[in-house]
Amino acid sequence: MCCDCECRPLGWLLGLPFAFLSLLVSLVGVIIWIVGLLLSCICPCCLCVTVLLELAIELIKAPLHVMEWFTSQIPC
What we know:
Blueprint: H1 9-42, H2 47-60, H3 62-73
Helix pairs in contact: 1-2, 1-3
């Protein structure tokens, strides 16, 4: 049993299906990021491409955010 509440295997196991779905969302984020990166090379002055790239990076980080949220919801 963990004394410092850092290891929460139940939250990790419950979060796996949702992390898988967010992994699919992060793949969409990778595609958006690649397209946005190509667009920023073509027209670097376009501000909307920067916003698109920031959105794509947040989509890529989605599985990590989901797993952190699920593990924080389960008490020790």
